[in-house]
């Protein structure tokens, strides 16, 4: 199985342990973004995620900057349906792909946080948003693939004579995330890659089975992604020392972080699952550490793998053995960690290629 590695793109340093305020530097720091993108490319990553929130810089511009400033690295561009017409969104992604062929992927995030949606003027509930996402992706595919004008009549979108010559030369992969029943239903219908947060192995196996069952009636066979926060070091003891330091800094800064970045995972089913696992144990499986998720309310990718480089690579391959083909990994000091993760990328790919046991 070919293993895809995805990192993170950001226009400033902002993690649980790094918060770059406007007073210390610009929100859009072009030099930092370029350095981060190059570090990921040199470390062997396939793509970087351009994330989205109501406070984020424009993702299309950020993605273009990443693609222009690198030679091979791709982007996974997050997009929330509901703010841009699906026909226009289809052309925006197709145009980006035309300038950077084969390097663009779409990450559909329907939006689990009502308050963050409302900041951009979207006053809807989650079931409504998922129905809208379903239609959005129907129309997006039609705009990309139709060779003649099409009509569409839905609850949220009506199109008459939709057609454009601006479409991807190949296929723009659609990644999809969400842990609710509505998310699985819609993602099973549309996703090329279904993304999970870093749950214990048994939880991921359960989620893969759910999505495969939802995708089967549509004749789809999606791939799967897991998002994790590796904390590797030369030895296991050194890795745990670093992990405890990260937890200390997180506790010191978590209030500021939530205030600055409007973090609230309380309504998200994926966050609730991570918090349930955190309540059950601080460490699951061999080395899946849940303390950061518990401290921050699990409002995103917040579970870590702690150990030596060989041990963390082994744990990543445990997910691959379940059927996961994409590993989205980001650190707590993103620029330094992107370079350091080159060791993990190399180890995982070497072991997968040789069939070495995990």
Give the structure's gist in a few sentences.
The chain is of the alpha/beta class.
Salient structural properties:
358 residues, alpha/beta, eight-stranded parallel barrel
- Order of strands, main sheet, comes to 1-2-3-4-7-8-9-13
User: Span from first to last CA?
Assistant: 14 Å
Low-confidence stretches: none
Largest sheet: 8 strands, parallel, barrel
What share of the residues does DSSP label as strand, in percent? Answer: 15-25%
Envelope shape: globular
Helical proportion, percent range: 40-55%
Structure report:
The two termini are 14 Å apart. 47% of the residues lie in helices and 18% in strands. The longest helix has 26 residues, at 236-261. Helix 1 (30-43) runs parallel beside helix 12, helix 3 packs across helix 5 and helix 6 crosses helix 7. The strands form 2 sheets. The protein has an 8-stranded parallel barrel with strand order 1-2-3-4-7-8-9-13, surrounded by 7 helices. The chain has a two-stranded antiparallel sheet with strand order 5-6. The protein is globular. 44% of the residues are buried. The protein is built from 13 helices and 13 strands. By secondary structure, the chain is α/β, with parallel strands linked by helices. The model has no long low-confidence stretch (mean pLDDT 93).
């Amino acid at each position: 199985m070919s293993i895809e590695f995805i990192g993170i793109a950001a226009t400033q340093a902002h993690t649980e342990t790094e918060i770059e305020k406007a007073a210390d530097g610009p929100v859009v720091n072009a030099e930092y973004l370029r350095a981060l993108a190059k570090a990921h490319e040199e470390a062997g990553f396939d793509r970087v995620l351009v994330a989205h929130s109501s406070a984020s810089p424009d993702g299309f511009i950020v993605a273009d900057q990443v693609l222009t400033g690198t030679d091979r690295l791709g982007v996974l561009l997050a997009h929330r349906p509901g703010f841009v017409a699906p026909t226009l969104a289809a052309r925006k992604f197709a145009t980006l792909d035309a300038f950077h062929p084969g390097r663009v992927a779409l990450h559909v995030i329907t939006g689990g946080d009502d308050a963050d949606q409302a900041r951009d003027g979207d006053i809807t509930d989650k079931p409504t948003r998922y129905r809208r996402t379903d239609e959005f992706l129907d129309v997006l595919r039609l705009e990309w693939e139709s060779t003649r004008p099409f009509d569409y009549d839905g609850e949220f979108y009506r199109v008459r004579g939709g057609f454009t010559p601006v479409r991807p030369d190949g296929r723009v992969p659609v990644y999809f995330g969400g842990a609710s029943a509505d998310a699985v239903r819609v993602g099973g219908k549309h996703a090329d890659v279904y993304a999970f947060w870093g749950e214990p192995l048994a939880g991921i196996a359960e989620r893969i089975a759910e999505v495969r069952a939802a995708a089967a009636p549509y004749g789809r066979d999606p791939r799967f992604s897991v998002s994790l926060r590796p904390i590797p070091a030369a030895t296991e003891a050194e890795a745990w020392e670093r992990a405890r330091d990260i937890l200390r800094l997180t506790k010191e800064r978590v209030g500021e972080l939530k205030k600055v970045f409007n973090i609230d995972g309380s309504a998200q089913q994926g966050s609730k699952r991570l918090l349930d696992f955190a309540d059950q144990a601080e460490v699951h499986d061999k080395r899946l550490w849940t303390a950061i998720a518990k401290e921050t309310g699990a409002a995103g990718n917040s579970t870590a793998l702690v150990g030596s480089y060989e041990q963390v690579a082994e744990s990543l391959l445990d997910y691959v053995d379940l059927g996961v083909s994409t590993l989205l990994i980001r650190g707590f000091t993103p620029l330094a960690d992107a370079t350091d993760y080159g060791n993990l990328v190399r180890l995982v790919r070497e072991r997968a290629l040789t069939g070495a046991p995990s």
